[in-house]
């Protein structure tokens, strides 16, 4: 019997908890890891790029002034990961704590690289990063807390695991990987431990974590650092010449184990394991594969091709027959699309605050239905919405090409606040969400407290600059931004002013 019958589950757990812990990190020498005050009646709007990354900047000082440590989730050579609670909002976060005296300059560069990569990623199946702190002894990376456990732990909890469930999990993994690959980002350590579920709920979604070994590369360049976890490492990584396709190999290994409970390549030691990986020879002869479909086996074969040039890409894997056959039909909500067409633009500041609420205050459960609509529109699965993808949706609603063009042109003008000529995930959430989802009293209170760092009940210009440091504005521009919030011109922003600005904007969209 395969994993569906339960026999594979015990072997799967053993592999996940014991064998995937080993890391290899042999580095070759040819890769480097890589205030003037305006009148309150004259409000000048300042233009700056709006995306979630503007809130992720390096902060110095005592992190414990802002966070309470609840429990240690894991420990390693360089530090530990803890569950923490943000004191001002009560929101739970995960905190990676890294000892400065345990890392060399190269590892510090890797940490900075992880933050710089992760904060630019905006995808429903990639972990969100919120803050970066530094004190005399440690670096701290604050990310969202994913409480649902690792991929294989989740599988072992499912009584009747089948190919449809496996395809659903692999689809989400590949969508995130494809999103990264379209940005020339290689994860390099895809494994079950780095795929976590948002919660313990039955239909919780998954997210890829730990971009500590991720690397952004040029189109034609190759990486040479042998890094990853032995059972999931691609043959070209062993040979120290590889690119994005190494992630697809890792996904193929994960899918293989999901369906049968054991890895495609094994060995008595690492050298023997690597030899078998490089050979690329594996089989479906064991009894566990008797009830597995030919389409599933075919996809695995295409993902585990030793020659990366002949290996299927993440994008191609998402279009494979097995993925298509096992995909549930998710219908678009035409009424919501009609409302989306009426979305009105916001000032840059209002858009930024709405994105903060979306990424750091709204729960993943609240965003689930919107995420479903986003993925249905995203036909090519690159993690963003193009004009053509949106046009196709509106053509299904209106039999008027001119009207469809006008709607999409207006939507891009209003919702594409970072000017990327595509609608990113967070931009879509802000535009698609109902007013009460974004401007509920409890959400506005938490958002206000995120700005009100000292907890005195008001926001100063300095506090605004601290939380939005990524906007990189001049002093005059900061004055303009703050004056938009400071409705009465008294030099501080209270909760009423903060609320009035956001509620007024939301009401204008009704």
From TrEMBL:
A GO cellular component annotation here is: plasma membrane
In its UniProt entry, what is this protein called?
A: Calcium-dependent protein kinase 1
Under CDD domains, the record lists: EFh, STKc_CAMK
Listed cofactors: Mg(2+)
Spans annotated as Disordered? 14-40
Compartments it resides in:
Cell membrane; Cell projection, Cilium, Flagellum; Host cell membrane; Parasitophorous vacuole membrane
The annotated topology with respect to the bilayer is: Lipid-anchor
| EC number of this enzyme | 2.7.11.1
Under the heading InterPro entries, the entry gives:
CDPK_Ser/Thr_kinases, EF_Hand_1_Ca_BS, EF_hand_dom, Prot_kinase_dom, Protein_kinase_ATP_BS, S100/CaBP7/8-like_CS, Ser/Thr_kinase_AS
**What keywords are annotated for this sequence in UniProt?**
ATP-binding, Cell membrane, Cell projection, Cilium, Flagellum, Host cell membrane, Host membrane, Kinase, Lipoprotein, Membrane, Myristate, Nucleotide-binding, Palmitate, Repeat, Serine/threonine-protein kinase, Transferase
Start and end residues of each Protein kinase domain: 67-323
Question: Do you know which Pfam families this protein is assigned to?
Answer: EF-hand_7, Pkinase
Please write the reaction equations for the catalytic activity of this protein: L-seryl-[protein] + ATP = O-phospho-L-seryl-[protein] + ADP + H(+); L-threonyl-[protein] + ATP = O-phospho-L-threonyl-[protein] + ADP + H(+)
State whether keyword Endoplasmic reticulum applies: no
Give the protein family. Belongs to the protein kinase superfamily. Ser/Thr protein kinase family. CDPK subfamily.
* Protein residues bound to ATP: 96
Cleaved signal peptide residues:
none
Instruction: Report the superkingdom from the record.
Output: Eukaryota
One GO MF term on file is:
ATP binding
Locate the EF-hand domain: which residues?
365-400, 403-438, 439-474, 477-508
Q: What class of enzyme is it?
A: transferase
Q: Per the record, where are the segments of Polar residues compositional bias? A: 16-40
